[in-house]
Amino acid sequence: MELKDKIAIVTGSARGIGRMIALELASAGAHVVISDVLEEDSQKVVQEIKNMGRESIWVKADVSKNTEAAHLIQSALDKFTRIDILVNNAGITRDNLLIRMSETEWDSVIAVNLKGTFNCIQAATKSFMKQRSGKIINIASVVGLIGNAGQANYAASKAGIIGLTKAVAKELASRNICVNAVAPGFIQTAMTDNLPDKAKEALMNVIPLARLGQPEDVARVVRFLSSDATNYITGQVIHVDGGMVM
């Protein structure tokens, strides 16, 4: 219960990795604000958290819009009066080869993944600075470190998140606010489940541990970074990728 009664916000937490992060933080004692545009799935996660004996609310927010990110942060403060942990997980993909990528495919990924992370951090910073404490964890990707064909937009957005993490970590360190990033590799989700067998075999050849990661693998690292055990860790990128990037 190392996060007992801490208040956490997790964006993009209706499904997949975001959902698992929210449940992991709740299992450690945190009360969690679920933020996503998917109402039915979000409400299911809220109920799962309440079943653990924690408090939880859903706030619908398109984090690519500054006003909605601000509404998310204010809704959390209205309910809980403080925020201790902000996990920026909301993200989308619009994969295409560079030569075929439309402006809309580029702009939408940058808007949600990178601008959305900026919007939420900016909206929450005043509260963190006032209380002189806080943990910000941004979900990046190994693709932001090594690139990936057909994902120029996604790779750029995730590389941007890494740079943003380091810049904000330097700006907020004097207020005792720790800012770190987690860079997952290939995690078993609905998207990877649909990969052809040959594609899965090719993945195994580049992952030293020879298996896909699980959402829990990412969630446990986020839990660690959210705890007081990491009060002297900031500006770091932790790879959760089975050894792909060493």
Overall tally of domains: 1
| Unreliably modeled segments | none
* Secondary structure: number of strands: 7
Biggest β-sheet: strands ordered side by side in the sheet? 3-2-1-4-5-6-7
Structural class: alpha/beta
CATH level-four homologous superfamily name? NAD(P)-binding Rossmann-like Domain
Q: What would your notes on this structure say?
A:
This protein is α/β, with parallel strands linked by helices. It has one domain: Rossmann fold (3-Layer(aba) Sandwich). Helix content is 49%, strand content 15%. It contains nine helices and seven strands, in the order βαβαβαβαβααβαααβ. It has a seven-stranded parallel β-sheet with strand order 3-2-1-4-5-6-7, with helices on both faces. Helix 4 links the parallel strand 4 and strand 5. The chain is globular and about 50 Å long.
In short:
The protein is an alpha/beta fold and 246 residues long. Helix content is 49%, strand content 15%. A 7-stranded parallel sheet has the order 3-2-1-4-5-6-7, with helices on both faces.
